[in-house]
Write a structure and sequence with these properties.
- This protein is an alpha+beta fold.
- Helix content is 33%, strand content 24%.
- Strands 1-2-3-4-5 form a 5-stranded antiparallel sheet, with helices on both faces.
- Strand 4 (79-87) and strand 5 (90-99) form a beta hairpin.
- The protein is globular and about 40 Å long.
- The termini are far apart.
Length: 160
């Protein structure tokens, strides 16, 4: 399993990440920043993830009124690397950047990821996300990643 804590991606995966960031920020990609995980943030993330949060920080890029969170979450057997773009306190885009599972790849297609657009912390958006037969764990991973991104973005907003 690839751990986002070490951010050790293959050269091909790194290129996919760079390409996505260049698209989001129109080739003017800001330097990455880190949000440190401690105290109540760690407790809230553990609740969202339904497990103890072990990461020390989360990496993000912020410019042009957008924040991109690059998150890894275990699908069935391997990590799924997803970028969640937040703009105006809601999901602007969800993109599966690296999918490593042998099944459930349908979570990568636009008809699935576009369901997340407009989600925010004030609504119960998860009940409106259609599941995919045979891809339940991948669907759940993307839901968690989106919820984590929304939460982390709200932490940033509170601290500014």
């Amino acid at each position: 399993m690839i751990s986002s804590a070490s951010w050790s991606y293959t050269p091909t995966e790194n290129q996919k990440i760079k390409t996505f960031l260049a698209q989001v920020f129109q080739d003017d990609v800001p330097k990455p920043k880190r949000l440190w995980v401690k105290g109540v943030i760690k407790e809230n993330l553990s609740q969202i993830l339904n497990r103890p949060e072990k990461k020390l920080n989360y990496r993000y890029w912020q410019a042009q009124g957008k924040t991109v969170w690059l998150l890894d979450e275990l699908g069935k057997e391997r990590d799924i690397t997803t970028a969640v773009v937040i703009k105006n306190n809601q999901v602007h885009q969800v993109k599966v950047v690296v999918y490593r599972e042998s099944r459930g790849g349908e979570v990568q297609v636009p008809w699935f990821t576009e369901q997340f657009v407009g989600a925010n912390q004030q609504q119960n958006w998860q009940k409106h996300i259609d599941s995919i037969s045979g891809a339940t764990l991948s669907v759940n991973a993307l839901k968690k990643q989106t919820e984590v991104a929304l939460y982390l973005d709200s932490v940033l907003a509170e601290s500014s």
